[in-house]
Design a protein that fits this description.
Length: 258
């Protein structure tokens, strides 16, 4: 599977060390890397490649410069759905009808996501991860259209919480999503997403990246962080994913027919 990293901090901070440790795991996840940096604006700067992170000259150059950010997302890919090409690398990003930019990284696979099939013709790549983002944005757009205005932060959380709970049924759905204001996290596969809260920052990672006091992310519920602090936790939906190798055999067979 993939690994993902997300950081939200109260103030700009140097992130080279944590990024170097994270991307060093690419020996086990060789099918691409990506990095979204949010700076002081709402739209991210995204760089990604369909090559192993530890062999990327581009990434080496990026990490060779001092990186100071308040928020970022990063991803290293082990492909289950989608070939090894740029369009299938995370993060994925898109704007809703109000102009808010959403950015997503995913660790997992959708095994029962017929609701996502409508987006196959709209996506740039082949991944279920990109279709998840398109679905979440569509849900936000429908809610904004019915209200006739952009959603509040609380309303955005509720829309995402409901949509993710439904997608999680029968699927492995570890997500980090940034909407330009909040960083959202979700896991429904035990011991596969952790967080570290210290020094005015919250760091989410598939695997602990240091000797700090890493804890499991609250299970089967959406959480939201803003400026390095937890601000919202949703209701548990109980759609836990339990590993079944037969799920992956079916995915590989279906993808081979595309």
């Amino acid at each position: 599977m993939c690994e993902m990293l997300g950081i939200s901090a109260k103030r700009r901070r140097e992130m080279n060390a944590v990024l170097r440790e994270f991307f060093s795991h690419a020996e086990r996840h060789p099918h691409g890397w990506g990095l979204a940096r949010f700076g002081d604006g709402h739209a991210p700067s995204i760089e990604k490649e369909p090559v192993k992170a530890t062999e990327s000259e581009l990434l080496g150059g990026i990490l060779g410069e001092r990186i100071e950010e308040r928020a970022l997302l990063a991803h290293i890919r082990f492909a289950t759905v989608g070939t090894m090409e740029y369009a299938n690398c995370h993060p994925f990003s898109g704007a809703d009808d109000s102009g808010r930019v959403w950015t997503l990284v995913h660790n997992g696979t959708i095994f029962s996501g017929a609701v996502l099939n409508d987006y196959i013709g709209l996506q740039f790549g082949e991944t279920d991860s990109e279709r998840i983002l398109l679905h979440l944005i569509a849900r936000v757009n429908r809610a904004q259209s019915s209200r006739g205005r952009p959603l509040t932060g609380s309303e955005r959380f509720d829309i995402l919480s409901s949509a993710i709970a439904a997608l999680a049924k029968g699927s492995k759905l570890n997500l980090l999503v940034h909407d330009g204001e909040f960083l959202y996290a979700h896991t429904n596969f035990r011991n596969s997403l952790h967080y570290l809260a210290e020094d005015g920052a919250v760091t989410f990672s598939t695997c602990p990246l240091s000797d700090g006091d890493w804890k499991p992310v609250p299970f089967t519920r959406l959480v939201a962080v803003k400026d390095g602090e937890f601000v919202r936790e949703g209701t548990p939906h109980r759609n836990e994913y339990i590993y079944n190798p037969d799920d992956y055999r079916l995915v590989y067979m279906n993808f081979a027919r595309l």
